[in-house]
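Hey team,

Filing this mostly as a record. A colleague (T.K.) asked me to run one chain through the structure pipeline before their review meeting, and I want the input and output archived in the tracker in case anyone asks later how it was produced. No errors, nothing strange. Just documentation.

Input sequence:
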Amino acid sequence: MEEMDEVYLRMHMQLLQWLQRVCARKTRLRLEVLLFVLASHLVVLACLLHVSFVSDAFGHSDCLSQYYAPPPSASSPIRPHNSHNGSDGAQSSASSTNPSAHLLLRIQIVPEQAEWIAVESKSGAGPPDVHYKDPQTSFVYAAHRGLLSLLELHNDAKRDRTRTPSFSLKDVPFVTLYVPSSSACFDLKWVGASNPLWKWFLEHVLGYDTILMNQLAKQYGAKGFFYRESLKVITDMNYGVFNPVDAAKSWLLFVALKFKVLHTIVFLFFILTALVAFVLTETQKRMLTFTELFQNRSQLQLPIANLVLEYFAQSLMFVPILVGMLFFLFELYKDQLLAFAVLSMMWMGESFSVISVRSRLSQAYFPPLFFGLFAIFHLYFFAFPFGFSYVVFAAMAMLLGLLTLFFWNNFEIPALNHGQISLRRPREGGFGMSG
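Output structure:
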């Protein structure tokens, strides 16, 4: 038996023995059922959200257009409906239906019980403009990222009364749309927008970001930048290497895109699992070597400072590997939190595969199921760049947790208790092999 396999086997045995002491079989089965119920609800929720806000056939992806005015004519210009100019408080006369008509578009979600304030125009002429007081759900769409930087500087100068703005946004077409939270744009299919549970989930958990990005992508195409003012988070809405719009132009480009997506999924899965397995194995080897040398030097009363320094220097070699892996995922997903979550899920799945997949049925079924969950998430992510990726990822992570608990309860714990897995036999043979 290899030394590392023995270490992993002892970890596996200690983990399952601890799990049996802490949780009885009925408790583990109840946890398994609970994970199944949560995962099922997340899958249903992801389907409802996609049908309601992403799908062109059934959703409200073009709902935002009702808040725009028709294009003005030369003889009778028409002001945008329910919109205000963001620089001087006067209503804007630019056409909102044309993407080139304005460079900055602010969308403010207004609750039903909103407080409004009146602001007099700078010229002193005309009635005062009415604004929503203290908007927490304010979003800005910009054609260019530099405009968002100008907007941040302008807002910082307005908050700091001691500073005088060195520039003005008057020359930048800037339109503000006030969208009520009870709008049909936020209707969840078969639920509606007035459901209290849905409203709470939308405001406190899901957020309006993904819904508005889909509506803006429908209106202007996949270009520009989306900015949440309360969190100061910028999202790049431009497609990367996977552009379904270009692929829809011909069947050859469509097939090429599908092959590119499948190749990327397979490449990601095997690269990430190989890197995680390499890091796990190498760190365990170095820990074992360090422990043996530390015990020997302690018994011989030799200095250990050089040993600790050498071990620390050797451990630094893993830092470039992990950092490079993270930066690669950051560029691929364009979302640091999602990239870190995917890497964590891969670490969890590969650790379970290396340490706890030892029975015959586990070796046969866990790897393809793990790859299936990984592939389903990435197929959705690449097919719908503005989809509800976090909800789908949460469902996949919950299903992965369900798989680990299922294989523990039904295969690994019985195999360990019945002596099929032991120090003399760390893994069961495959199908068709004798014991």
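Quick notes for T.K.: The beta strands are 83-85, 104-110, 116-119, 129-132, 138-142, 174-180, 225-228, 233-236. The CA atoms of residues 52 and 288 lie 54 Å apart.
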